Each structure stands twice: as C-alpha cells, then as structure tokens.
Amino acid sequence: MVYRVQLIxxxxxxxxHFYQLNHAEQIKGLWSRLSxxxxxxxxxxxxxxxLGIHSEPVSAYFAAGSNADIQGQKLWFAMGSxxxxxxxxxxxxxxxxxxxxxxxxxxxxxxxxxxxFVYVIYLIEFCLLILLNVTLAIPRDSxxxxxxxxxxxxxxxELVTSFFSFITLFQAWAxxxxxxxLKQGTERSPKFVLILILVITLALxxxxxxxxxxxxxxxx
Length: 220
Fold this sequence. Notes:
Helix content: over 70%
Largest sheet: 2 strands, parallel
Structural class: mainly alpha
Strand order of the largest sheet: 1-2
C-alpha cells in the first residue's frame, strides 16, 4: 500500500489515515511536507518577532539608543525568532520520532508522519497565540487554551506559570493523536506507550519553559 501524506485530512480523519499509514509499504510526500512545515514555522516565528511578541525579556534593551538602533535591535530579535522557528520543528519532528523508534520499534518514516501531524497542531496553536497577542494583548501565560491562567491564581512564580502555559488543549489533542497511532503500531502495552508519550511531552514542556524563561539581563 502507498500512503500519501495529507496533513490537514490526517488531523481530522485520524482513524482512516492511521490505518493506511500502519499498513503502508511506501510513503510519498513526506519530505516535501516536512520542508513545508519548517518553512511555515520559520515564517510565523519571524513574523511574531517583527510584531514584538515574546520580546518582554529584551524590551529594556530596545529603549536604549536612537530610533535606528531600536529598529535594528527589533530586526535582530525577529531574525532570532525566525532561527528558533527553524530549529524548533526539527526538535519536535525528529527527537520524539527517534525516541519512539528506539523504545517502540515503529518505522521511523511513519513516526515522522505522525510528528508532522503533531507539529501542524502546534502551528495552529501558535497562530492563535499570535492573534490573541496582536488583537487583545493576551500573552501565552494568559492564553484561554492553557492552564497558565489557573496557575496565575495559584502562584506568583513565573517559572511555574510559564510551565503550565504549555499545558493546553492543543497539547492534549497532539497527545491523543500520538497515543491513537502508536498503540496500534507497536506490540508494547498501551500503558507503556502512554507513559512514554507523557514523559517525552513533559520533557519538552520543561525544556520550553526553561528556554522561554531565560533572563537576558543575566547574560550580559
């Protein structure tokens, strides 16, 4: 069977697509779709940088200097955001796929297809976060889709709040897709599959929390 990667249809018709993917002997369109995701991610993160989203840690440095200097600093920030937009999908696409391949012995190409679905979900969430930030000035920590809002009522610790802001409805959607496919594609127990998914996801949440909480003023 030949499986053609269809990212949008795969999200909303996962049962049919996962059945086809599990029984596929050949996969077409994988690398072109991965390249497209990386390009879109780079563009979206670059756009968010130009709009000044998540620039709070470096905003104090923008205030210093002439207007030309400020615009130059903003451009550098946008470039940095774009570079992160290039690197982040590589982490999300390949690192979990590699770990699933090692522990579950599933075809690596099929795991890349699975992670491409996951990253589409991440991009949908990121687009909504940009929209909320631009229209309503709502940052990630206060996203209505995350537990960050509840965490703000429970603690004043910014690191804790940032961590819970990564626990969202979209993350739950991604986890459910991963579990649905992986429990069908491996001989390991469903419990082991779920624990592995949660451990990897938790590690990514912690990494994202620490990365976004870097205090710029301590670096200089």
